[in-house]
Write a structure and sequence with these properties.
The chain is of the alpha+beta class. The longest helix has 13 residues. It is 13% helix and 29% strand. The chain folds into two domains: 44 residues, no CATH class; 151 residues, Translation factors (Elongation Factor Tu (Ef-tu), domain 3). Strand 1 and strand 2 form a beta hairpin. The chain is extended, with a radius of gyration of 29 Å. It has a six-stranded antiparallel beta barrel. The protein has a four-stranded antiparallel β-sheet with strand order 5-4-3-6. Strands 8-9 form a two-stranded antiparallel sheet.
Length: 278
């Protein structure tokens, strides 16, 4: 039980906040006293802090709910954009993806690896150009070496075996998908291009019309806060576009047509999975 001390300031009792006695003794305050009982104490700030604590997840990180995994996924190469016409003679912009058959090299399970995923490869690669660890990995699986290894996180891998192949017919026309790829690199960009700043005045007397302007105070806090929007490298980062629609999936021609734009340059590797929010 915490005993209420005499307040330093004569405030209503509702403004007195009491903490654990150990915190008060450690910080040299009377038992049950808190600095929040000062005249600048804000009940609104206190309620906001209590709400944030209520929303905070309880328990270790590995026991929290993980995001939904995909039920099916495929690896493709971005070819470029084109257009089709639907039944009403309307233009449909689509992105063409080349989907070579993906061969399963390794199946990862919860019991052995702690999560479920499938490691696949596609294309062909000469065995002489492989390192010894890569060659041993493919030899152990009995799979022909491919261009690269890509891991696909799946919800259920019980029916997937090593050596099994996936093609473009994994997906169907009209299905919603999420596409993940590395975006185009733009190099070192300024704040107007990178963060959509308005820039400075375009009138006379202004030196540097595209400059960012002030970035912080002088004596206080005597530093620039982390995360400040400033010039820097733009692009070349992992991007996921959600809820795109599959227009056509042709396994014979190894083509997958998706309505809309897909991140990444031509020739880039993209991962297509069923939509998590679809």
């Amino acid at each position: 039980m915490v005993i209420s001390p005499e307040p330093r300031y004569r405030l209503p009792s509702a403004h007195l906040i009491y903490l654990d006695a150990r915190t008060d003794v450690r910080q040299g305050r009377p038992q049950g006293w808190n600095r929040s009982a000062q005249p600048n104490f804000s009940l609104r700030r206190l309620r906001r802090a209590e709400r944030s604590r209520e929303r905070r997840p309880i328990g270790p990180i590995w026991k929290r709910k993980t995001p939904d995994m995909a039920n099916k996924a495929i690896v493709a190469i971005k070819v470029g954009m084109t257009q089709l016409w639907d039944e009403d003679n309307r233009v449909v912009p689509v992105t063409m993806l080349q989907v070579e058959p993906c061969r399963v090299v390794q199946v990862k399970t919860d019991e052995r690896d702690g999560y479920t995923a499938v490691q696949v490869t596609f294309g062909q690669r000469e065995a002489t150009k492989l390192s010894k660890p890569e060659a041993g990995h493919f030899d152990a699986a009995g799979v022909e070496p491919g261009q690269r290894l890509v891991e696909l996180r799946l919800d259920d891998v019980s029916e997937i075996e090593v050596g099994q192949e996936f093609a473009a017919d994994v997906l169907e026309a009209g299905e919603k998908v999420d596409v993940t790829a590395v975006s185009k690199g733009k190099g070192f960009a300024g704040v107007m291009k990178r963060h959509n700043f308005a820039g400075l005045k375009a009138s006379h007397g202004v030196r540097g019309h595209r400059a960012p302007g002030s970035i912080g105070a002088c004596a206080t806090p005597s530093r620039v806060f982390k995360g400040k929007k400033m010039p820097g490298r733009m692009g070349a980062e992992k991007v996921t576009t959600l809820n795109l629609t599959v227009v056509q999936a042709d396994a014979e021609r190894e083509i997958l047509l998706i309505r809309g734009s897909v991140p990444g340059p031509k020739g880039g590797v993209v991962v297509v999975r069923d939509a998590v929010k679809g």
